[in-house]
Amino acid sequence: MQATATPQPLNPAYAETLTRSVLAMPMAHALGLQFSSVAPGSVEIDIPYQEQFSFRPGQLQATAIFAAADFAAVAAAGTLLAPGWINASIDCTLKIVGPANGEKLVARGRVINAGKLITVSSAEVYSVRNGEESLCATALATARNIELKQ
Q1: Cα–Cα distance between 4 and 148 in angstroms, integer?
Q2: Contact predicate 79/13, CB 8 Å
Q3: Of 60, 75, 64, 90, whose CA–CA distance to 20 is shortest?
Q4: pTM metric for this prediction
Q5: What is the mean pLDDT of the chain?
Q6: Across residues 107-135, what is the average pLDDT?
């Protein structure tokens, strides 16, 4: 298997631009989403357990898991955007492989293939209980890159 080069951001302020735009979204705010790592082509986010997003006490429902995966994958794609561009999800496939029954979710997104108009990324979502991570979902996402018109 051939190693891939570390992607280079087109916006020197990519981390600040990305975190500001994502954290301004009402859904990110409602979920309590926080970035723990932002690097070119990858991000890590945390979402705390909240009873309002559970389907039974102590276990998050699929919607919260999906949101964590989608935010992480598409945010990873966002790290490679040029200034004046944004992106939006156009497709995401989630496979739940275990329960989301910890104190928080940690989602790690990474770019698979970055293009000018379409970027494909993936994410793994872990349930964290007592500091131990357990894989609960994996996702493949596609983002549409959109140039903002001034």
Answers
A1: 30
A2: no
A3: 75
A4: 0.94
A5: 94
A6: 97
